[in-house]
Amino acid sequence: MTVDHGRGTTPLDRLKAQYDRDLRCRECGYVDTDGAWQARTTGDRVSYRHVCPSCGAIETRTLRLRD
Ligand SMILES: [Zn+2]
Fold first, then answer.
1. Count: domains in the chain
2. In terms of CB atoms within 10 Å, which end of the chain has fewer, N or C?
3. Residue 37 falls within a domain, yes or no?
């Protein structure tokens, strides 16, 4: 596993980058290549939300910052 020093990359950034490559709609299969997850921090968790531009389906993911 490569650790990239010096670019200020956090585990959250890496996770978001992973999500950004995974923008295929579960409902209609549309891949939103120009889209991005919108992150919202609430307390000890981060909620990611993406709205499919094709069918309007809303995909959400929640990440806990602490266990
Ligand atoms: Zn869709």
1. 1
2. N
3. yes
- Ligand 1 ion local residues (Cβ < 5 A): 25, 27-28, 30, 52, 54-55, 57
For residue 8, the CA-to-ligand 1 centroid distance in Å is 33
Q: In angstroms, what is the span from residue 53 Cα to ligand 1's centroid?
A: 7
Q: Which domain holds residue 55?
A: 11-64
Give, for all 67 residues of the chain, the pLDDT tens digit: 555 555 678 887 887 777 766 788 989 999 998 888 899 998 999 999 999 999 999 999 898 987 6
DSSP letter assigned to residue 3: -
Task: Supply the pTM of this predicted model.
Answer: 0.65
Cβ(52)–Cβ(59) under 8 Å?
yes
Instruction: Determine, yes or no, domain membership for 3.
Output: no
Task: Please report whether residue 31 resides in a domain.
Answer: yes
